[in-house]
């Protein structure tokens, strides 16, 4: 001990004085050994396979992030060269897996490039009135207010650049002819809808891969005519499937009515557009909206019901059960049933993806492989991305595979833990009362709900805090009563014994609707969230992949990454100004912190609905408070920001003089004068960049646009000067023009 100035100090006897502290080498060695052991666990044989579709998907995401279309001669040779290098390096234990990942990413990039080139078709670049066209109806959709048809164009008139091959048209309710009909109509055509805000969903990209080059609506009557050419094989196939769907839909509506019939038809035929808005909103708010979209769940139920029914029937014959692989026969029957369900439901992209995944699982059963594994999920994801690379940016794909991945991970790690005490007296009592099944359903709902939450928040700007309650109450009835009754009813149609089964299905649907409305009415059921960018979503996806795919304690790094992504998402800044993609509607954040809206006489309300959702604002587009702080006269409107700066929307040319002098921002459908002192977003700007979001930065602006300068993709070419097709409309006794208020944003 040593004393000095009244203080007592103890010398460190563990090391000599003047020697710096050194870390404990044993701890470092133990940590290194643990990391090596964990790394070996996560890279063991077969453990890297689930990462193959991840790398493949990264390549596709990079493709869609490009600002101009990549050349075919770039991506395809690159993938080939990398494949050769990977083969040469196959003996290198570290380089080989890394090269496989890089090659998979290059292959994903190349596949997406090839798919885009393969589906290339003309896209309308300007709006056109009174355009006569004729063609075969390939798709017919029933909706709540209007119906939709997709027409394969045989002939089209008018001064149109890039006349489309297929168009989607809205018509008055119950006036759409059946699939396969050759029609002649006058139309108003529009280019496919572009994003309503920066970072919003790109409808034009979605329609491009559906080979739809224009949207719009019918003006006047729909004239049915004799086709000048025989229908194609695809039209004949679509007609046959539509007739089968029509028979089922007719039988459903003969036994059920209203939302019961609409939901039953949605579950079995995929025609989900006739559900009333209140019920549809309640289903999505409660977290049951996934039931309406034919996805992996529906495929699993159909395949599962057929599998167990066929296997049970075959097991009744002892000779078959003892001598033949009836399990494989049942799997084959389930696969055929899933294929029929795919065709019956319209074979949409989401349904195709679900069928591929179900087929791989059933094929695994046929070759004596475990059905529900991450390996099979990886093979299904890879197959989907090869055939449908555009699915990677679709919310349905993201939510479906995120939920399934979480379910498989929970099944592999959570269910064995629950079954560990199944043989104890307490475990037996719990099983007797169905406690284990309830706990399993809660775990499954929590896993799927938490896994899909980032994607629901990103695409739809809302969360379902009571989703677990709704799914626990409703999904057992849907799985045990609704879907089996519907499948049995389809089988019973030829025998005329289906009505009682439809009514039984209706009872289950009534319960599901009641649960949805009950949960949607709970306090705080509508969990709104401010829109955030792709960065937090990608980071959260990375965390989810680590959490679900890794087996070692390293997987908990994924939870930390998800937490960081959540903080990033919740800190997303709110724009001070939104501008529509046609310069006809502007939203300004005023002193109250809420948006006020200015729009021209013909300005759309569709962007306003999207902006309010992205702002986590519960108001509707008709709310009177949206006009607070807005002053309008016959030549324009003005509103003020929180800092008092003026934003102007001039209607007439004479308004520019004052607006350019007094306002900080001028938005117009016209061309602003070159001498305008204010920041101007006029037709020369928004026609090139689309919708915009502006953030106030001092006395200037930070602008984020839907399409940055130089952006040029097949579904979003630079907008050409406006031209209107001209033709003379023909009068007719029955007008099929839908009302303007019945049209939706992408018509």
Straight-line distance between termini: 88 Å
Q: What share of residues is helical?
A: 40-55%
Let me know the number of strands. 19
| Whole-number mean pLDDT | 84
Total count of helical runs of at least 4 residues:
24
- Please state how the strands of the largest beta sheet are arranged side by side: 3-4-5-7-6
For the sheet with most strands, the description reads:
5 strands, mixed, barrel
User: Ranges with pLDDT <50 over ≥5 residues?
Assistant: 1-7, 720-732
- Note the beta-strand portion: 5-15%
The radius of gyration computed from the alpha-carbon positions, rounded to a whole number of angstroms, is: 30 Å
Mass-distribution shape: globular
Helix-strand category: alpha+beta
Describe this structure in words.
With 747 residues, the protein is of the alpha+beta class. It is built from 24 helices and 19 strands. Strands 3-4-5-7-6 form a 5-stranded mixed beta barrel. Strand 14 (636-640) and strand 15 form a beta hairpin. The radius of gyration is 30 Å and the shape is globular. It starts with a strand and ends in a 42-residue tail after the last strand. Mean pLDDT is 84; it is low at 1-7 and 720-732.
Write the layout of secondary structure elements.
Blueprint: E1 2-4, E2 7-9, H1 25-42, H2 51-65, H3 72-88, H4 95-118, E3 128-142, E4 146-156, E5 166-172, E6 182-190, H5 203-209, E7 214-224, H6 233-255, H7 258-269, H8 277-286, H9 296-315, H10 318-323, H11 326-344, H12 349-366, H13 374-387, H14 395-413, H15 415-419, H16 425-432, H17 435-460, E8 462-463, H18 467-492, H19 499-520, E9 527-528, H20 534-549, H21 556-570, E10 577-579, E11 585-589, E12 595-599, H22 606-614, E13 630-633, E14 636-640, E15 646-650, H23 656-662, E16 665-667, E17 679-681, H24 683-689, E18 692-697, E19 700-705
């Amino acid at each position: 001990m040593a004393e000095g100035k009244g203080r007592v100090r103890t010398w460190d006897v563990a090391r000599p004085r003047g020697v710096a502290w050194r870390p404990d080498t044993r701890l470092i060695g133990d940590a290194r050994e643990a990391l090596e052991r964990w790394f070996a666990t996560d890279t063991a044989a077969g453990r890297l396979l689930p990462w193959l579709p991840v790398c493949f998907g990264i390549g596709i995401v990079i493709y869609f992030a490009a600002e101009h279309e990549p050349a075919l001669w770039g991506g395809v040779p690159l993938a080939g060269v990398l494949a050769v290098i990977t083969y040469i390096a196959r003996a290198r234990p570290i380089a080989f897996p890394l090269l496989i990942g890089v090659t998979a990413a290059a292959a994903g990039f190349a596949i997406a490039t090839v798919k885009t080139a393969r589906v290339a078709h003309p896209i309308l670049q300007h709006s056109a009135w009174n355009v006569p066209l004729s063609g075969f109806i390939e798709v017919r959709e029933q909706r709540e207010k209007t119906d939709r048809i997709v027409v394969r164009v045989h002939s089209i008139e008018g001064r149109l650049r890039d006349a489309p091959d297929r168009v989607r048209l809205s018509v008055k309710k119950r006036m759409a002819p059946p699939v396969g009909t050759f029609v002649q109509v006058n139309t108003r055509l529009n280019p496919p809808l572009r994003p309503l805000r920066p970072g919003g969903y790109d409808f034009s990209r979605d329609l491009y891969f559906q080979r739809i080059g224009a949207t719009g609506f019918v003006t006047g009557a729909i004239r049915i005519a004799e086709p000048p050419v025989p229908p194609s094989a695809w039209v004949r196939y679509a007609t046959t499937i539509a007739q089968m769907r029509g028979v089922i839909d007719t039988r459903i509506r003969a036994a059920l009515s209203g939302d019961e019939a609409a939901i039953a038809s949605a579950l079995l035929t995929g025609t989900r557009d006739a559900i009333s808005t209140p019920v549809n909103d309640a289903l999505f708010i409660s977290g049951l909206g996934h039931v309406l979209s034919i996805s992996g769940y529906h495929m699993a139920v159909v395949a599962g019901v057929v599998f167990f029914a066929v296997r049970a029937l075959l097991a009744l014959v002892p000779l078959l059960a003892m001598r033949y692989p009836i399990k494989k026969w049942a799997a084959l029957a389930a696969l055929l049933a899933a294929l029929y369900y795919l065709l019956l439901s319209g074979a949409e992209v989401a349904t195709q993806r679900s069928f591929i995944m179900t087929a791989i699982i059933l094929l695994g059963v046929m070759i004596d492989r475990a059905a529900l594994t991450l390996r099979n999920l990886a093979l299904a994801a890879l197959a989907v991305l090869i055939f449908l690379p555009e699915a990677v940016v679709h919310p349905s794909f993201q939510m479906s595979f995120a939920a399934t991945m979480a379910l498989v991970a929970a099944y592999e790690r959570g269910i064995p833990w629950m079954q560990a005490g199944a043989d104890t007296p307490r475990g037996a009592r719990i099983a007797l009362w169905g406690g284990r099944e309830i706990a399993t359903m809660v775990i499954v709902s929590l896993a799927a709900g938490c896994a899909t939450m980032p994607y629901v928040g990103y695409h739809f700007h809302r969360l379902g805090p009571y989703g677990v309650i709704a799914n626990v109450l409703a999904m057992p009835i849907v799985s045990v009563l609704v879907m089996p009754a519907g499948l049995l009813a389809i089988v019973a149609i030829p025998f005329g014994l289906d009505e009682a089964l439809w009514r039984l299905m209706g009872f289950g649907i009534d319960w599901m609707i009641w649960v949805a409305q009950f949960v949607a009415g709970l306090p705080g059921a509508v969990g709104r969230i401010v829109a955030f960018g792709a960065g937090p979503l990608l980071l959260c996806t990375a965390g989810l992949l680590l959490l679900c795919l890794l087996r070692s304690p390293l997987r908990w790094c994924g939870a930390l990454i998800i937490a960081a992504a959540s903080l990033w998402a919740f800190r997303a800044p709110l724009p001070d100004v939104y501008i529509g993609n046609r310069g006809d509607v502007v939203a300004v954040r005023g002193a109250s912190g809420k948006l006020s809206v200015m729009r021209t006489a013909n300005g759309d309300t569709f962007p306003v609905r999207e902006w309010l959702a992205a702002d986590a604002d519960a108001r509707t587009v008709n709310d009177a408070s949206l006009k607070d702080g807005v002053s309008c006269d016959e030549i324009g409107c003005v509103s003020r920001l929180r800092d008092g700066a003026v934003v102007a929307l001039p209607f007439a040319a004479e308004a520019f003089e004052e607006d350019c002098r007094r306002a900080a921002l001028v938005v117009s459908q016209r061309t602003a004068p070159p001498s305008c002192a204010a920041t101007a977003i006029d037709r020369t700007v928004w026609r090139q960049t689309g919708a915009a979001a502006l953030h106030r930065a001092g006395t200037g602006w930070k602008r984020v646009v839907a399409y940055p300068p130089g952006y040029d993709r097949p579904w979003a070419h630079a907008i050409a000067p406006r031209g209107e097709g001209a033709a003379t409309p023909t009068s007719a006794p029955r007008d099929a023009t839908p009302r303007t208020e019945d049209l939706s944003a992408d018509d």
